[in-house]
């Protein structure tokens, strides 16, 4: 199992007490599988993604990434794990304004110490996969919102992660572009065999995903119709 969350409970300070954001949540995703997590605002979706990304340590429960149990790893070891095994697509693309599309990707590989030639060929392969081979030399302001989101997605795959975590990728896009981005993420999941978890509040576009689970008040279950 490439991503396994087991009995995750997460609380936040809340006045004099604690608010339970995740309550004994379990989730398993295989390589090449895409699980969509839906749920109303405040139900715990972002918290679930942050725990899966090892950015937040839960009160209890375990997160296993690509066979590595993360409990007890140091901050440095977690950072290393994230760099090599986890790709994260945040809601906002956060591209660097002065870099071209291909450079946005190359930066990731440089941090990881790859040769520039290998980094460039991987970057071009990914830009091609997201339909932007012809826009490799453009800077963010020369790209549309949908194109920027595609660069963002390609960048998350740069270091060949096992796990791909995607937060509300369609929130800034209209219905048609949103559907295209979801279709793209599904295709990339199959092609690069990532264990993908995608968080969204918009379930109308979830036609092609392998599985949909719903978070309600911090608990995970099968989605309720509607
Ligand atoms: N850092 C924090 N400190 C305190 N409470 C928090 C914190 N982050 C989230 N919460 C609370 O935990 C609960 C779950 O929040 P979370 O952001 O995970 O939900 P969500 O489903 O992603 O919501 P949204 O769709 O609005 O982003 C909410 O009640 C929220 O107010």
UniProtKB/TrEMBL annotation:
Database matches in Pfam families: ABC_tran
InterPro entries membership: AAA+_ATPase, ABC_transporter-like_ATP-bd, ABC_transporter-like_CS, ABC_transpr_LolD-like, MacB-like_ATP-bd, P-loop_NTPase
GO cellular component: a single term: plasma membrane
Single Gene Ontology MF annotation: ATP binding
Keywords: ATP-binding, Nucleotide-binding, Transport
SMART domains per the UniProt record, alphabetical: AAA
Keyword DNA repair: no
Gene3D superfamilies for the chain: P-loop containing nucleotide triphosphate hydrolases
UniProt keyword annotation of Transport present: yes
Name listed for the protein in its UniProt record: ABC transporter ATP-binding protein
Residue ranges occupied by any ABC transporter domain in the UniProt entry: 3-224
């Amino acid at each position: 199992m490439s991503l396994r969350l087991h009995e995750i409970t997460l609380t936040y300070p809340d006045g004099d007490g604690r608010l339970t954001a995740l309550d004994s949540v379990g989730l398993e995703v295989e390589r090449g599988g895409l699980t969509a997590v839906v749920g109303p605002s405040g139900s715990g979706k972002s918290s679930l993604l942050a725990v899966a990304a090892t950015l937040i340590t839960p009160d209890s429960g375990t997160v296993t990434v690509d066979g590595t149990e993360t409990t007890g790893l140091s901050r440095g070891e977690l950072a290393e794990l994230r760099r090599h095994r986890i790709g994260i697509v945040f809601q906002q693309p956060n591209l660097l304004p002065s870099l071209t599309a291909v450079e946005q990707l190359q930066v990731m590989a440089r941090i990881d110490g790859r040769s520039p030639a290998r980094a460039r060929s991987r970057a071009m392969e990914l830009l091609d996969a997201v339909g932007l081979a012809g826009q490799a030399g453009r800077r963010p302001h020369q790209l549309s919102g949908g194109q920027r989101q595609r660069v963002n997605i390609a960048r998350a795959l740069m270091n060949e992660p096992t796990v791909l975590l995607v937060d509300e990728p369609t929130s800034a896009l209209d219905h048609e572009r949103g559907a295209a981005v979801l279709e793209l993420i599904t295709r990339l999941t199959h092609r690069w065999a990532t264990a993908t978890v995608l968080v969204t509040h918009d379930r109308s576009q979830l036609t092609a995903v392998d599985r949909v689970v719903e978070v309600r008040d911090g608990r995970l279950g099968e989605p309720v119709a509607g």
